[in-house]
Amino acid sequence: MERLPSNIDLQNTEVWFQDEARIGQRGTVTRLWALKGTRPRAIRQQQFKYTYLFGAVCPARDVGIGLVLPVCNMDAMKVHLEHISAQIPQGKHGIIVLDRAGWHMTPQVQIFSNLTLLPLPPASPELNPCELIWKCLRDRYLANRCYNGEEDLVEACCTAWNQFTTTQGSIRSLCSRNWSDL
What is the CATH number of domain 17-25+45-175? Predict the structure, then answer.
């Protein structure tokens, strides 16, 4: 791991996975349970308001950090990293595995002494378990719905994230990867 600072002991590290998702009024339509032979209607809203859900999870500890923000840029990423940094236990170092979005790769976000950003190879979203979280949240909590506005979107995102992360074992079972164990 050449990217880790030389003074970091691998025994004192935590691996976190980070990503962000755009959630909006023009949401996801998913399958519905219905009686055989019936064709239920699924609603799909046509408005274009949206928000961003920033999420980071540590499968080893079964914990997650989520923020709902109106924009997705370098400043939003700094705020998210600040929250992650605060959750790293004293004496530990956090390795944040993330994709190569422009706001992840800029040197201005690499300002936390207890965090090291580890980008995934280009075009490899399947390596980031947060992608499965977004699918889970959309399928279980956010699909087939209409939102009156931004407040409803923010409330729905917060509720979905909180329900997922407070379910004991959900992060560990969905996001653990053998290759990420140190």
Answer: 3.30.420.10
pLDDT single digits (tens) 84-143: 999 999 999 999 999 998 888 888 888 899 999 999 999 888 999 999 999 999 889 988
Q: How far is it, in rounded angstroms, from Cα 180 to Cα 124?
A: 15
How many Å from the N-terminal Cα to the C-terminal Cα in the chain? 10
**Residue 83: which residues within 8 A CB-CB, separation 6 or more?**
65, 67
- Chain centroid to CA 93: 20
Cα separation, 168 vs 176, in Å, equals 14
- Number of Cα atoms under 13 Å in the Cβ half of residue 134: 21
Q: Using CA atoms, how far apart are residues 147 and 158, in angstroms rounded to an integer? A: 14
- Closest-CA residue to 109 (of 18, 181, 180): 18
What is the DSSP pairing of strand 93-98 with strand 13-24?
parallel
Report the Cα 63 to chain-centroid distance in Å: 12
Helices (H), the chain: 74-87, 102-105, 130-137, 150-166, 170-175
pTM: 0.84
